[in-house]
């Protein structure tokens, strides 16, 4: 049996480049090099049929450790809660007030990029604090 070692996470969205650039800032990801024969992604995009221009965008972990993120334009808007979401691991190894301070600092940074703060769940003796947020198109994610 084959073992899968890599995954790509795909986002359906209205504005692929905008959402991709947001997640680049969140995660420290970068744009992959443009396809061979093109000096930039903009040059590549202009070579596509008009209906395909701006239809997708991607970003990658510069270390190669994290999954590739792919953003594809879809005609329908977001209607219901995501069944899958990303947890951005900001507070790993931190507890109590120190963890909450790290989460709140990252929350403020991401809000300046266009994210929306949904709710802060405080530590309850079982689970540590986390912050629920939405990206620039309303997709849920957590600062954990």
Give a nutshell description of this structure.
With 144 residues, the chain is an alpha/beta fold.
Fold and architecture overview:
The protein has 144 residues and is α/β, with parallel strands linked by helices. It folds into 2 domains: 8-73, no CATH class; 86-143, no CATH class. It is 24% helix and 24% strand. It contains 3 helices and 7 strands; from the N terminus they run βααβββαβββ. The mean pLDDT is 91.
Q: How is the topology of this model organized?
A:
Blueprint (H helix, E strand, L loop, with lengths): L7 E6 L2 H12 L13 H6 L9 E4 L8 E6 L12 E3 L7 H17 L3 E6 L8 E5 L5 E4 L1
Parallel strand pairs: 1-3, 4-7
Antiparallel strand pairs: 2-3, 5-6, 6-7
Main β-sheet, spatial strand arrangement = 4-7-6-5
Q: Terminal Cα separation, in Å?
A: 34 Å
Query: Which regions are unreliable across 5 or more consecutive residues at pLDDT < 50?
Result: none
Shape: globular
- State the helix count: 3
Provide mean pLDDT, rounded: 91
Number of strands: 7
Fill in the keyword field for this structure.
144 residues; 2 domains; four-stranded mixed beta sheet; 24% strand; globular
């Amino acid at each position: 049996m084959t073992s899968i070692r890599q995954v790509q996470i795909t986002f359906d969205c209205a504005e692929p480049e905008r959402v991709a650039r947001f997640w680049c800032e969140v995660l420290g990801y970068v744009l992959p090099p443009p396809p061979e024969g093109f000096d930039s992604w903009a040059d590549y995009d202009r070579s596509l049929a008009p209906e395909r221009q701006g239809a997708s965008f991607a970003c990658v972990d510069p270390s190669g450790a994290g999954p590739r993120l792919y953003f594809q334009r879809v005609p329908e808007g977001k209607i219901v809660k995501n069944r899958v979401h990303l947890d951005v691991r900001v507070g790993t190894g931190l507890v109590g007030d120190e963890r909450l301070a790290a989460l709140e600092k990252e929350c403020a940074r991401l809000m300046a990029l266009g994210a929306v703060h949904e709710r802060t769940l405080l530590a309850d003796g079982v689970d540590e604090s986390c912050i629920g947020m939405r990206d620039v198109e309303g997709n849920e994610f957590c600062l954990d």
